[in-house]
Structure prediction request, 414 residues.
Amino acid sequence: MIKFLHAADIHLGYRQYNHPERFNDFGLAFEKIVDCAVEEQVQVCLLAGDLFHKSSIDPVTLIQAESQLSRLRDHDIATIAISGNHDRPRYGQAKTWLDYLHARELLVLLETNDDERFLVEQQSYIDIDGVRFIGMPWYGGSTRIVLEAIADEIPQISWDGIRYSVLMAHTGIEGQMLDMPDMLRYEDVEPLREYIQYLALGHLHKPYEAPPDAPWIYNPGAVENNSFDEARFSAKGAFIVSIDDDGNASVKKRVIKGRPFRTTEFSITKCGDFNTLIYRLRETLEAEKEGWQDTQPPVVNLLLTGTLKFDRSRLDIEGLRQLAQECLDCLLVRINTRLDNIEILADYDDELTAEQLERQVFTDIAREGGYGERSEEWGRFLRSVKQKALSNELPENIYQSLSGFLVNDAKGDE
Prediction:
């Protein structure tokens, strides 16, 4: 029998909200995954993309990666990885830190060869004890084209002695999150079923098993939340797969908890002055905290709603933040607003890239438009529409995309 662990989207090096403890949390998440691999006595650990949050990392992040990968190696656990959209080579770069870790023999980096063939032994796939592991890194908009090429090449390689096969791909399945661009459809992956028994995905931070009736597609989800939107996803962690000598497999989920994220909503409509707001907010926050049973101080999103009944200059946002920090005994407080009569700049992450900042702005526009919990999905969609328009996409295609998104969004309200 052989066992492997499937994890993804660890995002080492992410100093979220520019807070040092959030940097440490992402390192601790990887440590917990390695703990799980050791406890389960697996022979292989799969990392399905985005081990790092960005291609350029600092020494501490590299130390985090090397120390945990060394632990896996010391326990005779082979680590197999693919690159994701975050840790892939940037423009002008030939190599990444994943290549360095591969050269150090701390992991095996599988990459498809887009020059002649996609499937090359010891380069894009590796066999361990009769189990074949194939890797397909992030390809973005070219994912379906590459997958078609892989499906054409699969029958041409030898399958002698292979009792089970796994394809790792840093991509997602359409419909799991509303209008995430460049996702695969079931019909895209179905041609692989004859040869692939387990499709190990990453990229989407939501955990899922698909199709629901007979799953063979798995995404473990990101242990640490990369945004408040991800806090609604439960049961994130890793999959443990056991394969017997006849090629029969059993799959179980190991839930691995990250730091808790909590959202507290407070209406300021009945507060005629700032002192009243402070008094009522303190009461609300203290009552809210009584129901929490967190093992770690949470990250809190304080959402102010309603109508401001006093002068804007008297609304001390930083004072409200300090009050919430004191009452909730949390790691940090982020303040966002959904007020009827004024606009207040929301908290933005100090490390946001231009792409992420643009998406955040679209998200805020959606939130102010009343889309609430789906504002982040609308933010992603609005940015994708902009990208399609800039790439001279046909208007009818953009219209079709919008129609499909509206239908899916309407179903989410049912």
Summary: The chain has three domains: 2-255, 261-339, 354-412. The mean pLDDT is 89.
